[in-house]
Specification:
428 residues; alpha/beta; 2 domains; ten-stranded mixed beta sheet; 16 helices; 14 strands; globular
Length: 428
C-alpha cells in the first residue's frame, strides 16, 4: 500500500544563460528537473531569475505528488505573499484531480520555510508579446486574432523525447519566430516507481511561467495565453471543493499567476488569456475561417505522448478530445472538409455515443477529465447539428437531440461572456 511522505523539500534552483535546474527532495530521495531554452537571451538577469523562482515553486508539484508529503519545506526559496498564495492554491486546487482520483485530501499540508522575495523590476516593451503555442484551435485563434500591430513570437515547449510533429507543422504555418524550451523530467518520475502516487498536475500553469521566463528574458511585455471561458467550469464537487481538471487554465489561476508575477517583476509584464471571455464555439467559428491550418492542426492528446513510440501519427477519433473538437467544429465547417481534416468522423461512430452523451451533460460525469468545453457549450453545438442538413439524420445526433436542453442559443455563445484582462493594445 502506498504511504504518504513526511517532508517534500525545495533544495535549490540553479540558473545559467540557457538552463534552469530545479532540485527537490522527498524524504531523502532527490529529484532534478532541467529546462533548456533556445533562442532566448541570458536567463541570469535578476528579473528573469525572479520569474524562474515562481516556476521552481510550481514545477516541484510534479515530484511532490509522488509522496504527497504532509509538509512542504521551502527552505531558502525566495517567495512573496502572492507567490505563497499561488503555491497554496496549486496544491489544493491544481492537484485537485490528483487528490480526488487517489482519495487523498491535501488540506492538511503545511507549507513552511521560504525567505522574503524582493521586487526585481523587468524592463519590457508592451508592443512585443509571446504566445505559448500548442498546435490546437485555441492557440491558433489567439495567434491570428491578436493585433497585428504587436510584434509577436511563439513559445513552444517540448519534452526531452523530441518535438511534436503536428505542433511544429502548425507553428510553421504562422510564419512567426519561435522561442523554445525543452523540459527534462527526472528519470525517477518517468520510470513509474510503484511506490509513487500518480495523477494530474497543473502543467499549464508551469508552461505559463516558463513562457514568462522567456518573455522577460527577451524583454517582451506580454504573454498571450489561450484559455477560454469554460476552462473555469469544474468537473465535480468533492469534500466541499470544486475539482477542475483545467484549474491551471481557469480565471482564478490566471489572477493568482498575474499577482505573483507582478510581485516578482512589477506590472510591466502582462500575462492574460486572449480567449478568457470567449466560448469554445466562438473559438471554433474563428478557427473555421483559418483554412490554412486545417491540414496540420492537432488536438488529439494521443499525438502528444511523452514516449515517441506511443505518439499517434493521426487523429485517433476515439478520445474525448477528438469527439469534442469534431462536435464544436461541425456547425462551422462542411462535413466533407471536416472529415478530410481529421481523417476520422467521431460524431458518426456508434462507439462514441457514450462519450458524446457525457459531453452534453447526460452521462454519469458532469464533465470529462479532459480539456474540453462545458456541457452547455456542447449542448448548443448538438442543437445546431440537429437542425443542420448534413448532420440532422446522423444516428448519434438523433439519439441525443430530443434529450438535450440548451439554455443558450448558438448566437448567444458567440458573444463575449465574463471578465477579461486582455489589454486594449492586444485587440485589433
Amino acid at each position: 500500500m502506498k504511504q504518504r511522505a513526511d517532508v517534500f523539500s525545495y533544495v535549490a534552483l540553479e540558473v545559467d544563460d540557457t538552463t534552469l535546474r530545479a532540485h527537490y527532495r522527498l524524504d531523502g530521495r532527490d529529484f532534478r528537473e532541467v529546462v533548456v531554452f533556445e533562442d532566448v537571451p541570458s536567463l541570469q538577469r535578476p528579473d528573469v531569475v525572479a520569474v524562474a523562482e515562481l516556476w521552481f515553486l510550481l514545477a516541484g508539484l510534479s515530484y511532490y505528488k509522488a509522496g504527497a508529503a504532509r509538509r512542504i519545506d521551502l527552505g531558502a526559496t525566495p517567495i512573496s505573499a502572492a507567490g505563497r498564495a499561488l503555491l497554496q492554491a496549486a496544491v489544493l486546487d491544481g492537484l485537485g484531480e490528483f487528490s480526488y482520483r487517489n482519495n487523498l485530501p491535501l488540506d492538511d499540508v503545511d507549507i513552511t520555510g521560504g525567505q522574503e522575495a524582493h521586487l526585481r523590476v523587468a524592463i519590457s516593451d508592451p508592443s512585443r508579446v509571446l504566445t505559448p503555442f500548442g498546435g490546437g484551435i485555441d492557440s491558433v485563434v489567439s495567434v491570428n486574432r491578436v493585433s497585428q500591430e504587436l510584434e509577436q513570437a511563439l513559445f513552444v515547449m517540448s519534452p526531452a523525447a523530441g518535438r511534436f510533429t503536428p505542433l511544429e507543422a502548425t507553428a510553421a504555418v504562422t510564419g512567426l519566430p519561435v522561442l523554445r524550451a525543452t523540459r527534462h523530467l527526472d528519470p525517477l518520475v518517468l520510470a513509474g516507481d510503484p511506490s509513487f502516487f500518480n495523477g494530474h498536475v497543473p502543467v499549464t500553469a508551469m508552461v505559463t511561467l516558463l513562457a514568462t521566463v522567456a518573455a522577460v528574458a527577451d524583454q517582451r511585455g506580454g504573454v498571450v495565453m489561450s484559455n477560454e471561458h469554460s476552462a473555469s467550469v469544474p468537473n465535480l464537487l468533492w469534500r466541499g471543493r470544486d475539482i477542475n481538471h483545467q484549474w491551471s487554465k481557469s480565471h482564478a489561476a490566471e489572477l493568482l499567476l498575474a499577482d505573483a508575477i507582478a510581485a516578482a517583476v512589477g506590472d510591466g509584464v502582462h500575462v492574460a488569456s486572449f480567449l478568457r471571455d470567449r466560448s469554445e464555439l466562438w473559438v471554433a467559428r474563428e478557427f473555421a475561417g483559418l483554412t490554412d491550418y486545417l491540414t496540420t492542426f492537432r488536438s488529439c492528446n494521443r499525438a502528444f505522448a511523452q514516449d515517441t513510440a506511443r505518439r499517434a501519427t493521426a487523429w485517433c477519433g476515439e478520445c474525448d478530445k477528438c469527439v469534442f473538437i469534431a462536435l464544436v467544429l461541425a456547425p462551422f465547417i462542411e462535413r466533407s472538409a471536416l472529415r478530410d481534416a481529421l481523417g476520422v468522423e467521431p460524431l458518426a461512430n456508434p462507439a462514441r455515443l457514450e462519450q458524446l452523451t457525457t459531453l452534453v451533460g447526460l452521462g454519469d460525469e458532469r464533465k470529462p477529465f479532459e480539456c474540453v468545453g462545458d456541457p452547455g457549450e456542447c449542448s448548443v453545438a448538438l442543437h445546431a447539428l440537429a437542425s443542420h442538413p448534413q448532420w440532422r439524420d446522423e444516428p448519434n445526433i438523433l439519439a441525443l437531440a430530443t434529450r438535450v436542453d440548451a439554455d443558450m442559443t448558438l448566437e448567444d455563445m458567440l458573444q463575449p461572456m465574463g471578465d477579461s484582462r486582455v489589454p486594449a493594445a492586444w485587440l485589433r
